[in-house]
Every structure is written in structure tokens, then in C-alpha cells.
Amino acid sequence: METTRNACVHDFMSAPLVIVRDYDTIWHAVDRFVQSGLHHLVVLDPDDALVGVLDDRGVLAEWPLDAAGLHHRTIGELLRSQEIAGAGGVPRTHPAVSVRQAGLLMLDLRVDALAVVDDLGTVVGILTSTDLVRSLVEDS
Predict the structure, then answer these.
(1) What is the Cα–Cα distance from 20 to 11, expressed in whole angstroms?
(2) At what angle do helices 99-109 and 129-139 cross, to 10 degrees?
């Protein structure tokens, strides 16, 4: 394994992915979070195009606001409302980007996960803050 300074996102990204669809209910996402034990889910549309990265905190923030709505509102609706609140676009990176560059991007965007997308636009993984910590630990 290369040192973190020279390592690529591919070396530390998480894969295979746990995905949800933008048309799934928020409650379905809650179920996937519980089943997988993960903190981030990749959201795809019916054509497998990247819609966003859903984090458990964003879902948990909705719970007290409209618990019944979790069964009716879609993940796509939730992501769109978060974009209006300032997220602006889908945070993403490429597998060949250095871990350091991806970490700087995460800091700049103030996100704790990036979808990893190849040259064809296919989502091939996710890079989370936990993956970045793992890259530091493995480098020492």
C-alpha cells in the first residue's frame, strides 16, 4: 500500500455500495441504515445515475419534524430540500484522485463523504471520513 500522501481514492474507498433509489421512501433508507450499520447511502435514480449521498444525520433530523412523513416522502424529496438549504450539487471524486486531494475537497465542501465516480459516470464506491482516518492509520 502506498503512503497516504501518494495513495489514490481507490485504495481506501468503501465498496461494494449500499444504495437506495431516489423514489424510495425515507423510511426505507432508515431500514437500510439499520440493516447495514452504515452512516452513508448512495442514492441513484432508476437509470443508475448518481443523485446524491444520504447521511444518517440528515434522515434523523427529519424524524422529529415529520415522523409520519418518513413513510410517504421520498429520498429524492429529502435530498432536494437539503440542496435548497445549501448543499449545492453532489459531492463526488474520481478513483484516481489522491486521498489528500479528496480530503481537501471534503473539508472545502464541509461534507463527510464523497461518491466515487469513474470516467463513465458509474458510481464505484464512496469515500468517507472513516476511510480517510483508516488511510492515516495504515500509513503509520
Answers:
(1) 24
(2) 140
Give the mean pLDDT of 11-39. Answer: 94
Cα dihedral sign, 66-72-75-78: negative
Task: Determine the structural domain holding residue 27 and report its residue range.
Answer: 9-139
Exposure on the CB side of residue 101, measured as CA atoms within 13 A: 13
Q: Is residue 1 part of a domain?
A: no
The CA-atom distances, in angstroms, between 122 and each of 83, 119, 126 are 22, 7, 12
| CATH number (domain holding residue 67) | 3.10.580.10
Give residue-wise pLDDT tens across range 95-130.
999 999 999 999 999 899 999 999 998 999 999 999
Amino acid at 35: Q
Judge whether 2 lies within some domain.
no
C-alpha cell at 137: 492509520
Domain contains 129 = yes
